[in-house]
Write a structure and sequence with these properties.
Number of helices: 16
CATH class of the largest domain: Mainly Alpha
CATH superfamily of the largest domain: Intergrase catalytic core
Strand content: 5-15%
Distance between the termini: 102 Å
Strand order of the largest sheet: 1-2-3
CATH architecture of the largest domain: Orthogonal Bundle
Structural class: mainly alpha
Order of helices and strands: HHHHHHHHHEEHEHEEHHHHH
Number of strands: 5
CATH topology of the largest domain: hpI Integrase, Chain A
Helix content: 55-70%
Shape: globular
Oligomer: single chain
Number of domains: 2
Radius of gyration: 27 Å
């Protein structure tokens, strides 16, 4: 492949990497991403498939999954890099739609506790802290966070553009808690002097042209992943949503249907299976209380037998 062809093929990739570079991502990471994406695009080009982000579809992803001559974990890394480039240009995670990477959270759900949230909150920068608040105080998904515009926040109420079917799934309204409002102001103050605003989205970062523009859901996730690495806490954007649900149910006594409505689930079984039951806190508490109760009974019986023996009231020795 000549240099011009290689340059043209990687044009969109380099634009994506310039964006990541503006977010202070490490050069080693950027070189790895570029190499991963290039490997994928070479295989697409060899099969006469388009290498433009807008044209790569699920069929192309399925093809790459079959033909990339590497181990499965390396193949996953290649496709994750490709997914980042495509999502940056199109706003769509076509690799996720192809359902090949099987997000680890679908197999092992990550939960955080009160102390872990406190540690993360204290260590967070303004961008990370706003994400923490939107997830923990309001249960927002990362896509819902990224979709918030200025007009969506009106007199203490947030219009949420979410997923699902029906009015509750597509558009919902929620009161904005004061800690979230404070986090919004702190984040906006942190952007002062960084450039003019290029759009009206709440979550923004400096773009290639120096303006402040909307960040992608991937960038939102990356910010929390970085926070987790810095604090040693296993945390994801969706674990914040789980924290919201489990805190409502276990700590505030909120009934399950209200939790479902606040989570914007169409079916309460989703709330129960993926959030409340998965946390299994009540079962743990019940098991601990049962053990304490039985230990207390055994302890009382042991003490009573000890007293009878000391007083000489114990059973007589059997005759010989």
């Amino acid at each position: 492949m000549d240099r011009h062809t290689d340059f043209m093929m990687l044009r969109q990739t380099d634009e994506w990497l310039d964006h990541l570079r503006s977010l202070n991502r490490k050069e080693d990471t950027l070189r790895t991403h570029r190499s991963n994406v290039r490997r994928c695009l070479v295989f697409l080009m060899a099969d006469n498939r388009s290498t433009e982000a807008e044209d790569i579809d699920q069929d192309d992803i399925q093809y790459l999954w079959k033909v990339l001559p590497v181990k499965e974990d390396v193949r996953r890394a290649y496709l994750r890099s490709l997914a980042g480039m495509i999502e940056y240009h199109t706003g769509t995670d076509v690799v996720k739609k192809a359902d090949l990477l099987h997000n680890r959270e679908s197999r092992e759900r990550v939960f955080i506790n009160d102390e872990e949230f406190r540690i993360a909150y204290v260590a967070a920068d303004p961008f990370q802290r706003l994400i923490l608040c939107l997830g923990a105080y309001m249960g927002l998904r990362r896509s819902e966070m990224g979709a918030i515009r200025d007009d969506d926040m009106d007199r203490g109420t947030l219009t949420i553009h979410g997923k699902g079917h029906g009015l509750e799934g597509l558009v919902a309204y929620m009161q904005i808690p004061n800690p979230v409002l404070r986090a919004v102001e702190e984040f906006r103050e942190s952007l002062d002097g960084q450039g003019r605003r290029g759009d009206d989205y709440l979550l923004q970062a400096r773009s290639r042209d120096g303006t402040l523009r909307r960040v992608s859901p991937t960038r939102i996730s990356s910010a929390i992943t970085e926070l987790g690495r810095d604090t040693g806490i296993r945390i994801t954007t969706h674990s914040l949503r789980r924290y919201f649900a489990t805190t409502l149910y276990y700590k505030t006594g909120c009934d399950l249907q209200t939790v479902r409505r606040l989570m914007r689930h169409a079916d309460v079984s989703t709330t129960l299976k993926c959030y409340v039951d998965a946390y299994d806190q009540k079962a743990k508490v019940a098991s601990e209380k049962l053990a304490e109760h039985i230990d207390r009974l055994i302890g009382e019986d042991s003490r009573e037998r000890g007293r009878r023996k000391d007083d000489g009231d114990g059973p007589e020795d059997p005759p010989r």
